Amino acid sequence: QVQVAESGGGLVQPGGSLRLSCTASGSIFSRYHISWYRQAPGKQREEVAVVSNGGIITYADSVKGRFTMSRDNAKNTVYLQMNALKPEDTAVYYCNVQWGRAYWGQGTQVTVSS
């Protein structure tokens, strides 16, 4: 069993920045394949960034150049640095850990509004 927890959401004005954090339990954190997803009201959940256990990171086109994902295996944490935020980035952001099966956190709300 892997426990996953996100933090760092909040209300920010358009053009602002936020950094989300995701911690996951387990001594083999470095072997996890981890993704950030988001779900806006009335829309399907979409993957915005993913880091492989080899450290390769890919991004959805909608966030490329604005969001940066990173991982710190020593802290069992991945981050999502979000810059130049837009109102359409408003969503609940979830961390997903793949290790035999999918493990999800409870999500953290990001609201971009003036």
Model description:
The protein is mainly β and 114 residues long. Helix content is 0%, strand content 51%. It has strands at 4-7, 10-12, 18-24, 33-39, 46-51, 57-59, 67-72, 77-82, 91-98, 102-104, 108-112.
Distance between the termini: 40 Å
Principal-axis shape equals: globular
What is the N-to-C succession of helices and strands?
A: EEEEEEEEEEE
User: What number is the mean pLDDT?
Assistant: 96
Using only C-alpha atoms, the radius of gyration works out to 13 Å
- Most strands sheet: 7 strands, mixed
Counting helices, strands and paired strands, the structural category is mainly beta
Q: Kindly state the number of beta strands.
A: 11
Percent range for helical residues?
under 10%
User: What is the overall number of helices?
Assistant: 0
Beta content comes to: over 45%
Low-confidence stretches: none
Features:
single chain; 114 residues; mainly beta; four-stranded antiparallel beta sheet
In short, what is this structure?
By secondary structure, this protein is mainly β. The protein is 0% helix and 51% strand.
